[in-house]
Amino acid sequence: MTRSGVISDDLWEVLAEVMPTSCPRRGRPWNDHRVTLEAICWRFRTGSPWRDIPDEFGAWQSIWERHKRWSIDGTYEAMFRAVHAVRDVDDEALAALVSIDSTSVRAHQHAAGAPAPRSTGGCESNYTFAGEPTDHALGRSRGGWTTKIHALIDGTCAPVALLLTAGQVGDNPQLAPLLEIYPDRHGGTMRLLADKAYSHPSTRNFLREKRISHTIPERSDQIARRKEKGSRGGRPPAFDPALYRHRNTVERGFNRLKHWRGIATRYDKYAITYLGGVLLASTVTTHRLRN
User: Fold this and answer.
1) Mean pLDDT score of the chain, rounded to an integer?
2) In the chain, what percentage of residues exceed pLDDT 90?
3) What is the C-alpha separation between 70 and 273, in angstroms, rounded?
4) How far is CA 236 from the centre of its chain?
5) pLDDT class for 126, splitting at 50, 70, 90?
6) Which residue, of 147, 152, 256, 276, has the fewest CB within 10 Å?
7) At a CB cut-off of 8 Å and minimum separation 6, what does 17 contact?
8) Cβ-count burial of 130 within 10 angstroms (0-12 exposed, 13-18 middle, 19+ buried)?
9) CA–CA separation, 197 and 177 (whole Å)
């Protein structure tokens, strides 16, 4: 018997509210949603090919089709939001300390080769997914053929917002898009923690305009330029070393995600189906952290 039970009873009570209730196609009805979710979790936890999913979960083609559909129609995003909507965090002050960072994921050779998205005259073909980026979030970086996961992770090590880009894309340009999709449930008390990659004047101005408190250290070249200007260089930005120590939660959050082997290494050809797996892993991880 394959080890399962990733979707606990408590978690399923939350997810059942947002699962699709009817099959969009004629023919045989869907298999049980919970069993299918267990199969998808098994695949991403082990990093196995879809064809190797044990028969006890059902036909692998049906499981893959369901995963693709849920990735496209926003079901995984709804699961992710539903878990975060349950306010069971003991320390709200800790949850309001949100850190931003990215992690590189090495792409397996099987992740390459997907055709570029193309217009199909309003119809979706088998090779064209709605919302799929043209580069499939794959690119060359120092680590080779990689994808980057950009994330906001709160003080409990739970991901609260996620984006994918190609591996060579910089971190700082993804700050604003992440904050746009982040549902602030802390009544404006959120404090953003970021490393020197986000230490840019435009970024600090953007955060001030949004009235988002932040703790970001200055880069050495920025400090040197400010000192060269003397009194015209202005005051250094405020920095609290004690608060900045909490930024380790973002690394711990990424480590928890990468316990799932299908997340630590990307085998999926399409960014949208890989992101679906990342959202599913984040949903399970968040529920475990808060329970």
Assistant:
1) 87
2) 65
3) 9
4) 33
5) very low
6) 256
7) 82
8) exposed
9) 16
What is the model's pLDDT at position 233?
Answer: 72
SS (H, E, C) the chain: CCCCCCCCHHHHHHHCCCCCCCCCCCCCCCCCHHHHHHHHHHHHHHCCCHHHCCHHHCCHHHHHHHHHHHHHHCHHHHHHHHHHHCCCCCCHHHHCEEEEEEEEEEECHHHCCCCCCCCCCCCCCCCCCCCCCCCCCCEEECCEEEEEEEEEECCCCCEEEEEEEECCCCCHHHHHHHHHHCCCCCCCCCEEECCHHHCCHHHHHHHHHCCCEEECCCCHHHHHHHHHCHHHHCCCCCCCHHHHHHHHHHHHHHHHHCCCHHHHEECCCCHHHHHHHHHHHHHHHHHHHCC
Distance CA 60, CA 104 (A): 29
Q: How many CA atoms lie within 13 A of 218 on its CB side?
A: 14
R_g (Cα) of the chain, nearest Å: 21
Closest by CA to 158, choosing from 242, 81, 106, is: 81
Pair of tokens at residue 7: 């979707």
The residue among 127, 99, 106 whose CA lies nearest residue 115 is: 127
What one-letter code names the amino acid at 288? R
So what's the pLDDT on residue 125? Answer: 45
User: Cβ distance 274 to 164 under 8 Å?
Assistant: yes
Rounded to 5 degrees, what are φ and ψ at 96?
A: -80, -10
